[in-house]
TrEMBL record:
Belongs to the HIBADH-related family. Residues 5-160 form the 6-phosphogluconate dehydrogenase NADP-binding domain. GO terms for molecular function: oxidoreductase activity. This is NAD(P)-dependent oxidoreductase. Residues 163-281 form the 3-hydroxyisobutyrate dehydrogenase-like NAD-binding domain. Keywords: NAD, Oxidoreductase. Its EC number is 1.1.-.-. PANTHER family: 3-HYDROXYISOBUTYRATE DEHYDROGENASE-LIKE 1, MITOCHONDRIAL-RELATED (PTHR43060).
Amino acid sequence: MTIAAFLGLGVMGFPMAGHLKAAGHEVRVWNRTGAKAKAWADQHAGVAASTPEEAASGADIVFMCLGDDPDVRAVALPLLEHMKPGSVLVDHTTASAKLARELHEAASARGIGFVDAPVSGGQAGAENGQLSIMCGGDKDTFAKAEPVMQSYAKAIVHAGPAGAGQLTKMVNQICIAGLVQGLSEGIHFAQAAGLDVETVISAVSKGAAQSWQMENRWQTMDQGKFDFGFAVEWMRKDLRIALEEARANGAKLPVTALVDQFYAEVEAMGGKRWDTSSVIARLNRE
């Protein structure tokens, strides 16, 4: 049994922490909104802490699943002063590679391991314990964290040193942006041509056009329903991080930049909390 702390109980963190408890670990949780931490503790017979430091005190491993770089930095840097040497800090937040390297350095100075471990799979993946986790950090530290992360994962990959997990997640989001835009245009074209979209998808989904987005989102996209996954405002945060990294490393991301602007239009339409397949809505608007 591992003594674990989980900081951040959003739509991802709440079920992830639940899987840790169900796997037999001792879990203490913290959330900025204390009522959510209490609700988790009541549901899972765990412990709600009033501060991150209280949750992390004496823990073998501390998990974070927060919002953006400033949120992570504000919680993690003071927290390191209260973690015991030999423990591990795992950040599941999708954040910048620069921050991951900064936290790795700060943790190492105190004899604490650090793993940047952004996840893919969305709310459903978190609830079902079927997340894909992309990790960066020292191999020995990763080896400590991996068995515990198995509680909510279907796949865990060590991608390289600190920051590599975040860089891999950027690749994931770059690919999704292009895929969902292509699918949107394909469905929009089929609609405009008067084709039966179900028949079209049945035909093309058996060939090279097949994708997870096609299999899982074509029907709701055709129906104009967008309450089924990762929100536009979160995707824009992730694409911003990827585009900033690209400017630093010289990568050219013209399609990603364009799709980011399409999502900005969706936000202006009132869709910041719609799922990412809603990029089709800008094509179908009157």
